[in-house]
Amino acid sequence: MAVQAIPARIRWAVDFMDVQPSDHVLEIGCGPGAGVEAICAKLESGSGKMFAIDRSESGVDRTKRRNQKHVDAGRLTVRQIDLATLRVPVKRLNKVFAFNVNLFWVRGCHDEVALLHERLLPGGAVFLFYEVRFPDQVQEMIAKASASLAEVGFRVSVVEQKQPAVIGVIGRR
């Protein structure tokens, strides 16, 4: 398989999260696996683990193919599942990552966000990043995603990156 570059917007978001080698990270909506690749590279020198989910079978397949070495090393688990039906067995996540996942601002997602709050360790955080493709939607995205996180007890902050154009809504436990 040809080597695929990690887009600048994904690189910036992963760098912003400050993933540590011992972190346990969940990615929601792993798609082609670029975020997984960037995060797993930061976990290689430690005991950290990555769990990636996507509702799409093709997204799961693409992520597994792109990151097979991390799967083989036992660092990465990839599953086709919806966040609403995810059952994380223990409370040990440090970080949750999602990029361009509309769930958090297009419909009610109380149960999903409550699950994340319950499964994150104290001090853990949910990082929701969105590429700014439609500037007229940015304020609505920020307001709704922030409200979804705050409703279950997350402390919310917003970051904005001009180049590449990305906004982040961060919920800290």
Automatic annotation (TrEMBL):
Residue stretches making up the Methyltransferase domain: 25-124
Principal EC category: transferase
EC number(s) stated in the UniProt entry for this protein: 2.1.-.-
InterPro entries tied to this protein: Methyltransf_25 (IPR041698), SAM-dependent_MTases_sf (IPR029063)
A biological process from GO: methylation
Superkingdom, natural source: Bacteria
GO molecular function terms listed in the Swiss-Prot or TrEMBL record: methyltransferase activity
Keyword Methyltransferase recorded: yes
Gene3D superfamilies tied to this protein: Vaccinia Virus protein VP39
Keywords: Methyltransferase, Transferase
Keyword Phosphoprotein: no
Designated name of the protein: Class I SAM-dependent methyltransferase
